[in-house]
Amino acid sequence: MTRMEETGRVIGVDLGLKRVGVSISDETKLLASPLTTLAYEGPEKLAAALTALAREHGATSFVVGLPKNMDGTLGPAGRRAGRFAALLRRHSGIPVCLSDERLTTSQAEKEMIALGKSRRQRKRTIDGASAVLILENHLRALGTTTPHKEGQ
User: Fold this and answer.
1) 69-89: per-residue pLDDT in tens?
2) Is the overall model pTM greater than 0.85, yes or no?
3) 61 φ, ψ (degrees, to nearest 5)
4) What digits encode the pLDDT tens for the residues 6-27?
5) How is domain 9-142 classified at the architecture level of CATH?
6) ∠ CA 89-79-84 to the nearest 5 degrees?
7) Rounded to an integer, what distance in angstroms lies between the CA atom of residue 138 and that of residue 125?
8) Whole-Å CA distances, 85 to 1, 25, 119, 123, 138
9) How many other C-beta atoms can be found within 10 angstroms of the C-beta atom of residue 74?
10) Structural contact between residues 25 and 10, judged by C-beta atoms closer than 8 angstroms
11) What are phi and psi for residue 32, nearest 5 degrees?
12) How many other CB atoms are found less than 10 A from the CB of residue 108?
């Protein structure tokens, strides 16, 4: 597999059944920011939309959240993410990594509550916030960023 540490931005993907949160790193891979939330209209359309975003923003790799069961096994959602990552790799021609996303949505929800976000605001932004956490965890594993601090 091509090394993810190479130059260029990384796009983080929180794959949902209705919405897909998308985040992006800066070129130094130190910061992760929400980019957009896409409506899920099937894997092919999503792969095309993410490929277009990668080209537009100069991203050279993707990280897709891999929902694992608490015991580390893969359920239906994890297998779906694995199939989508393979499709995205074929469609985009750039590396795609899977990253354990256990508890990222609940962590994002807790952080937004701590920041005083309303239920409506949380619903509208939870997918992007989860995508940021997936990307931050991935960047931390690469050793390019410092741990996320609550409230930032």
Assistant:
1) 888 888 899 999 999 999 999
2) no
3) -160, 165
4) 678 999 999 999 999 999 999 9
5) 2-Layer Sandwich (3.30)
6) 25
7) 20
8) 14, 18, 31, 25, 15
9) 14
10) yes
11) -120, 135
12) 23
Both structure tokens of 120 = 């409506």
* E strand segments, the chain: 9-14, 19-25, 32-39, 59-66, 96-100
Select from 90, 95, 88 the least CA-distant residue to 3: 95
* Beta-carbon count within 10 A of 70 CB: 7
Taking Cα atoms as reference points, which of 35, 34, 25 lies closest to residue 5?
25
- The pair of three-digit structure tokens given for residue 64, joined into one six-digit string: 């897709």
Rounded Cα distance between 16 and 38, Å, is 10
- On the 0-12 / 13-18 / 19+ scale of CB atoms within 10 A, 102 is middle
